[in-house]
Every structure is written in C-alpha cells, then in structure tokens.
Amino acid sequence: MSNYVLFLIIIIYLAILFLIAFVAERNSKSKWVNNAVIYSLSLAVYCSAWTYYGSIGIAATSGINFLAIYLGPVIAAPLWIVLLKKIIRISKQHKISSLADFLSLRYGNNRFLGALVTVVALFAIVPYLSLQLKAVSDTFQILSNKSGYVSTSVWDDSTFYIAVLLAVFAAFFGTQTTDASEKHKGIIVSVAFESVLKLMFFLSVGFYVTFVLFDGTEDIYAKIIQHQSVTEQVTINSFEEGFNWLYTIALSFIAIFLLPRQFQVSVVENVREKHIKSAIWMFPLYLLLFNIFVLFIAWAGNLTINDSSKAEYYALLLPLQNNNTTLAVLVFLGGLSAVISMVVVATLALSNMLSNNLIIPYGFLDRFVKSHPDRNAKYIKNIRRISIFSIIILAYIFYINFSFELSLYAIGLMAFVIIAQLAPAFFIGLFWNRGSSKAAIIGIIAGFLVTVYTLILPFTLRIITGTDDFMAYGLFHYEALKPHALFGLDYLSPPTHAFFWSMLVNLGCYLVFSVSMKGNYRERNYAEMFVDSKNYTALQDSALVWKGEAYVAAIKNILAKFLGEQRTQRALNLFFRKYNLPLDTQMADARLINFSEKLLTGSLGSASAKILIASVVKEEEISLVEVLKILEESKEAIARNKLLRDKSSELLVLTDRLKIANEELIEKDKQKDEFLDTVAHELKTPITGIRATTELLMDESDDMPSELKAQFLKNMLHDSDRLSRLINNILDFEKLSKGRVQLNIEKHNIRKTLNLAINSFKQVATKKDVAIIQSNQSDIYAIYDQDRILQVLTNLMSNALKFTTPQTGKIILDYKYESGYLEVTVNDNGSGIPRADLPYIFDKFYQSNNQNIIKPEGSGLGLAICKQIIDNHEGKIWVKNNKKNGVTFGFKLPFK
Amino acid sequence: MKKILIVDDEPNIVMTLEYTFKKHNFEVYIARDGSEALEIIKSVFPDVIMLDIMMPKVDGYQTLRLIKENKNLEHTKVVFLTAKNKASDIEKGLKLGADKYLTKPFSVKKIVSEINELLN
Predict the structure, then answer these.
(1) Neighboring chain A residues of B12 at a CB cutoff of 8 Å
(2) DSSP labels for A710-727?
C-alpha cells in the first residue's frame, strides 16, 4: 500500500476524531457524553499499543504470561467502589487535576513532592510514549511495505508528523480552560470511541485468524501442539514463576490507579461517582473480550509466520500475508486508536503535572502575581501547550535514539515499575494519617534509585555500550550487586525483581521515616482530611488548622489575577453566603484560606496555590502539639457528642427516677414535719394542763376549795404520766422504725406468753368489767422477743378495751399454727372500727374520729408501735371488723 | 355577766379555764368538740368563744366557719387557743376571721386579760 494513501487514511481518521471531540465538547452537557458507558470505555485507555500488539508478542513466546497484566485491574475493579470513590471525592473537593497534585496535597501542599512525582512520572511515561510512537512507525512500515526503509531525517518520517498531530489534538482539546481540573469531554468521548474501534478491529482480526485462516480454536490448538510444547506456556510451572505472576499482578494493580492516564480518566474526568458502579463490571468485561483471541493469534502466527522477532505484529502480518489488505488497514487503525488515546491522555495528564507541579511553582509564580488576569490565563495555557509539545517531542527523540531496542512489553513493564514507586505514599497515605511528606519523598527517591540500578541502568548501558557486562557482573564485579539478581535473588524476571527490591526499600523508608519524622501541622491537617474522608466535609470546614492574619482584600487581589475580577467576586459572594458571613468581611479565616487555595488549585496546582495564598497571609507557625490538640479536640468533640446523645437518653430515665425519688423525699420530709408537729402538739397538751394548773394552785390569794385543789393535783399527776408515756412511746417508735432495736429472740411457748399478758392486764380489764378469755391451751413454740410480743398484746388488749362496753364486753385471745406461721388474734365484741379508718389504723398518731371520749388514754402511737414490732419480726399485722360486732386484730410470726 | 364558750377536747385544760373564768364572773359553757359547740350556740349566744383547733369530728377551723355563718353571733368574738404556733397557722386562723390567736401552753392570768381587753 502506498505511503501516501496510508497517510491520507490516517489524516482522515484523525479528522474524524477531531470532529467527534469537537462535537462532544460542544454538547458537553448531553447525556450521550456524560454516561457510565463513556466512562467505562474511557478507562480502556489502559489497553494501549502494548495490549494491542505487545500481548501477542508475549503470548507467542511465553504463553499466558501476558494475562497477569490484566488480572491486576480485574482484581482492582471491585475495590473501586471504596477506593476510587474516596479518591474521586477528595479530588473533586480540592479541584485536583493530576496524580502529582493529589500526592502533594495529601502531604500538605508539598511543592517538592509534587515536582518529584512529576519527574518520576516523566521517567516512566516518556519511554512508554515513545514505545507507542514506535508501534505506529513499525506498523506503518509493515503496511506500506517499506520494512527495510529507515527514515534519514525527521522531516520525511511519518511518525514525526503523526506525533505532531497528536500534540495538536491534545493541546487543542486539553487546554480549553485554564482550570486543569475541568473535564475534557472532547478527549474523553474520542477515547471512548477509539476504545470501541480498537476492540472491534482486534476481535475482527481474531475472528478472521481463528475461523477463516484456521478451522476454529480447536484446529489451532491441534496444530500448535504438534509444532511446539504448549503445556509449558499455559501453566505456571514453578514456585518462582508463581512469584513472577504475583508481582506482575501487583504491578498492574497499582498501575490501574497510578498510571497518569488512568488517574486522568478514572478520577479527574469522572463526572459522577455512580458511574464507578457500572465500570466495575464493564471494564473487566472489556479486558476479557480483548484477550480472548490473543493466544490464538499468537499461535496462528507461530504456525504460519514463525518469526519471533515479528511476533508483536502477527495481528497485522497475518491478514497481510493472506492479502486481506482491508482487514490489515483496520487492524492498523485499531492499533492507531490505541496509540492515539494513550498518547493524548498520557500527554495531557503529564502536561498538567509538568505545568502545575514543576514549571509554575518553580518559576512563574512571581510573574503571575505582577501580571494581568487575562494574560495570566494565556500564560498558563501556553505553559501547558508547550508542555504537551515538549513531552511528545521528548518521546519522539527517545524513540529515535532507542527505537531498535524497544520491546513493547519490556518498556511497558518498566513504566509500571517506576510508577509503582508512588504506591506506598499514595495508598498508605489514604488510610494512615501518620504518613509524612519527608517519608514519602525519601521512599520515592530510594525506590526510584533502586529501580534505576536494577532496571533502567542495565537497559540503558546495554544500548550505549552494546554489552551485557554490567548485567552479568554487577557493579565493581560484586556478585551481590548484580542488577538483575541483587543479593542472589536470581529467579525473578528483571521487572519483577526490580519491583520487589524497589518496593521493599520504598515501603521500608516510607514506614520508618513516617514513624520517626512527624509532618508539620499543615500536613497532619490534610492527612486527617484524606484519611477520614467519611467525615470529610465536616473536617474540611472545621478542622483546617490555621492561625494567622489575612485580609480578604489581599486574597481577593490574588484570586482576581487568575480568575478575573467578576469570577472572584462571584466566588467570594457564594462563600460568604454559605457561611452566613457579611459580604464586607475584612479578615479572612481558615475557611476562606482553604477555599481560596482550592479555587487556585485547578489552574495552578495545589503547591502553587498554597504559595500564592501564603504570600498575602501572615501565617503563624502552629506547633504540632497545638495542631494535634485541636484535631484531638474536634475528634473528642465528635465522640463526646455521640456519647452525650447516648447519655442524655440515660439521663432522661435517671431524671424521671430522680423526680420520683425527690417527690418521695419531699413526701417523707413532709411526713417528718407533720410527725414533729404532731409530736409537739401531743407534748404540749399535757404541759399546757400542768402549766395552767400550777399557776392556779400557786395563787395564794385564791381560796380554792380543797377538793378542787385535790382534783387539780390529780390532773397534774395524770398529765405528767401521760407526758412520760408519750415520750417513751415516741422514742420507742423511732427506734423501732429506724431498725435500731435489737430483738431478744428466743424460743418461747406462746401459751405461756399469752398467760403473762393476760395476767398483767387483768386488773385494768376487771376494773372496766370486761372479760378476757384465752380459748386455746395447746403448747406452740415459736421464736420471738417475748417482751416485745407482750407489748403488742397489751396494746391490742387496751385498744380492744376502749371499744368494749362494761359487763357485756369480752376480749378473746387465740392462736394457731398455720403454714409456717404462728397466728395470734385478739378479738373483741365492741363497737368496731369505721370502715374508712381501717387502712390507716396502724399509722402513727392516727386517731379515729369516734374515739374522742377515751382520747386521753392514747398516745396515738400504740398500734404504730405494734406494727413496727411485728415488722421487725418479719411478720405481718392486720385488722378486720367481725361479721356481727367488734373487731379482730391479728398478727403472724414466721417459724424460722 | 359575759358568756364564754370554751371548746376543747382536753378535760384537764378545760377545767383550769372553767375555774378561772367563773372566778372572773363569766358564764362558762363547755364543748368537747366542734359539733358540741355548734349544738350549744343554737340556744346560747356567747360574747366570746374560745376554740381549740385540733379536735375530733369538727375541727376548730370548720367550727369558726360555721360560727361566722350564724347571724346571731355577729357580735361574738372568737379566739383560737391552740398548741399550733407556726406563723402559717396563726396567719390562717386570723384570715378565717378569728379576733385573737392565743397559743398553748398559756398563762391563765394572761388569757383572762386578753379576753377582757377584747371584750372592752
């Protein structure tokens, strides 16, 4: 096929891509542009020329080893729902536009770290880009039948023009806005479109080879097993090879997150978080489909072409060999699609890093501050455009100089190993707030140096010196320093070997230095935000620790340099409204500083944003102790709030209980008052009598009749007795009710106790002419305090005596044994107790309304004391009116 | 001769008051509680009624209320003589319309002079 026709096809194809990107950019709000399918397909930028051609090369020589590169992403996909979501959320909040920005922000807007990440990424990706250019060049030559031709100058090399066109494409659609964190919908849609094409064309050639050139998969398999040993290629043969697999899977797992182009499409270009949900199955499915025919194309190539040096291009050579030029062109276009999407996205991502993390923060900030906003925007765009062109030209130069040594697979893996150096700082930093910037920097540099020694240096030296001496003998001919077998570790493939050692050193440095070197307050602050992304929004508003002095006007000034006067005013108004601040606020607070940095991050990168804002802010250094205190406090406050909520419900219950207890106490207090009142009243009554009588008797002028005098003296005696009885009863009652009485408990015969009681009371009863009868004469032994029980019996009998009438009056005492209790009753045939009084009869000082006639006899405590005595015996006292007349008092004493 | 009604449920105290007022030329009536007192004032209109408060059946307060309702006793003075000596008790008694509030224990001489003062 003619050179020019092919070039024309390429131009037309690129024109179509431009058109698609242009239309998508125009309709950037359409659902055709913003959906999960576009997102998932854009992730397939992972499948570059390496996948398209390189996999077949590997499959042809070493079988299924190529699969490891796809297993990592497949394993990673389900984790996206947690991991990628967190990364996307943080990036959106902070307008992060690249991996370098992300890491620099996590470690406290560290300028050097951002620059370091950029340099590492450049080292990894520029060779990778040149590899893509090589693929274009190689396939172009294969298709145009100029395999022997080597371009003599840049100007007649088609690859150069293709590279320039790609740079134009990336520059045009990649720098529409100064804010690099804005979405690049045109590029993404064209990438998605290319993902469809490359898959379609690759499946076509797979189908063609398998089912047209051969008779299906079984046919190829049947033939290949006669041609070469296959089992070795489709199985993992040894422990060592298992390690190779494991490390390669780990590498690709890291790559799917950290390759700049993957970060660009999966994080920066993500429109909605929920698109991840679709991507976690669509993307693995895409990879699966892509790999279906790889092995068969490779085997078919081995069978018919059998030239391992051309194995990478079997997909193109097979249709060509069979004179199917159309299919060959389609395969070429598929490969070109893979190249274009990779180159454009990777260049875009790298240029953002280069401009925002290296060029601007290290050279242009001062100029920006002095310059006009419109010109600043132009400057930034131009820096980015120049970056894009420089990167592509750099890749082209690399390609020209190393082109013959480039193997797609080797260079691809080298890129993975280099980019993996960012993994510890990235992944651990997401979940461990102790990870510090110094540790990250040391880890990355150390890991990178190990990679240089074990992977890049041998590779470069071989190309430059043309010998393998360095590889074979190691540095200074030390056995232990052989770059591909450090310390005798000789069974791993060079990339996995490099990965193992560099990661070991990197991870070790990161962990050790994180623990031993604490970050400054700013770092801890951002670390907290990244790690605790659940409380992320709350944290970022409240926990930004900042102490200093800044004027809103000064900050506004800086913002206007990049956003323009109007946008700045609008943004500030929004901010003031959000936090209910007056529009003419003078002094800036931590939130405004944070907000302003965020506004600038998109255009300038986080490190530059920090430097710019810091230039107008008089910030006071806060000691780490202070920061930790503040952070701890906010953490504690959250914990305390939760605790408080739990406790408050408990407290409510307690309050209710306390209320009840308090009411009870008040009631008791009232009762106590009433009791004292009553006691005082009861005491005063006899005293009043004695006092008045004494006064009368003392009046010598008075000639009181002697019998009256005798009556008064008798009254005094009576009142004195009453007084002392009352005092005794009160003291007795108090002692009993407080449980301060030691009962003298012994075994007694209740019959004898009753006899004693009756004998001592008989005199009083006989005087009133009331009979006392003890009906039961059986012996029942029980355990009780006999004196106290006698007191109870006497009280009950005198109570009964009050209600009975002379002559007919009868008091009957009885007792019996009943189910563990001794029951004693005192029964009378008196007037009974009014029903209303029954419940209160045992209350202290309770006096029935109908007993006033005999009141002077009672202290009002008799029955209350009885109840206390029985209670102290753990017994029970009760009263009930008889059916006919009279009342029965009874008590039960437990047998022990 | 002035008439006095003594209402109290403590016979010993009543005895001293009865003796004292008789000696000071009062016509003395005795009631052992509120209900007996109310019975007496149906036919007798004393110049002064001396009321205890803590009494069974009808207490001093209730008795005073009923006395106040009796138009025949418009000019009758009512004096509380009680052991209840808290400020709140005194206030309550005077609010109900008692003319004097005397507390137990008491001096008979003082009681007589207080009553005479009240009646003159």
Answers:
(1) 686, 689, 693, 715, 718-719, 856
(2) HHHHHHHHHHHHHHHHHH
